[in-house]
Amino acid sequence: PRLQNAELGKRAPRWIRDNEVTMCMKCKEPFNALTRRRHHCRACGHVVCWKCSDYKAHLEYDGNKLNKVCKDCYHVIIGCTDSEEKKRKGILEIESAEVSGNSVICSFLQYMEKSKPWQKAWCVIPKQEALVLYMYGAPQDVKALATIPLLGYTVDDTPKSADLPHSFKLTQSKSVHSFAADNEELKQKWLKVIHLAVKGETPECQNE
Fold first, then answer.
1. Which of 13, 68, 86, 112 has the fewest Cβ atoms nearer than 10 Å?
2. pLDDT at site 48
3. Which residue spans adopt a coiled-coil conformation according to this UniProt entry (predicted)?
4. Could you state, in order of their start, the residue ranges of all structural domains in the chain?
């Protein structure tokens, strides 16, 4: 659970591990080996890039010493609000942790588009939008890489010889999305949800 604004700086946060994110949790810039060093905000524990960690505030839990904090926490701690933040977030900017915690189903799946190589993606179907599949680079990312509105897709669950063993495809006219689960049981869980979603029916929660 997130620290509430009132608790920022008063309690030590849970640090999000570097390997749980592929992008800055504030400005959503992707991290890469060369240009984006990862920093932790000492108030909320989020992983941010150098630009977003260029603030300092006195933190109560650390004996009121000056600590590196992110822009958002800085504004909260020194008590000014950022009206920019109030602008409506785009569809892709639903945080993964937020939707994963309230989802019909979520797990890592291998994903392939057209002739690109397979890549691992954190896939989520949120309860409030049970007909949309969100794909993230990692479970704590704050912006989705892509969304697929499932309604009207055709499901093909028989892998071709070149596919990974537990794979299935979603096709609609020219767009084809291939997914593969780590095992047959997980594949069947996803198919159960997707078979309903493509017909516009709200699936049952599979996360239990």
1. 86
2. 92
3. none
4. 3-76, 94-197
Q: Which residues pair with 132 in a beta bridge?
A: 149
Displacement of CA 121 from its chain's centroid (Å): 9
Say if residue 161 is exposed, middle or buried (CB neighbours under 10 Å; 0-12, 13-18, 19+): exposed
**Where are the alpha helices (H) located in 51-175, listed in sequence order?**
71-78, 96-100
pTM recorded for the entire structure: 0.62
pLDDT at 4: 66
Query: What band does 82 get if pLDDT is binned at 50, 70 and 90?
Result: very low
For domain 94-197, give the fold.
Answer: PH-domain like (2.30.29)
- What is the C-alpha end-to-end distance of the chain, expressed in Å? 19
Residue 18: both structure tokens together? 């570097």
Tell me the C-alpha distance between 105 and 179, whole Å: 14
Residue-wise burial string across 92-125, b where 16 or more C-beta atoms lie within 10 A, e elsewhere: eebbbbebbeebbbbbebbbbeeeeebeebbbbb
Return the CATH number of 3-76, one of 3.100.10.20, 3.90.79.10, 3.30.40.10, 3.10.450.710.
3.30.40.10
Q: Above 80 in pLDDT, residue 106?
A: yes
The answer to whether 3-76 and 94-197 have equal CATH topology is: no
Q: Are 149 and 132 in contact (CB under 8 A)?
A: yes
β-sheet bridge partners, residue 147: 134
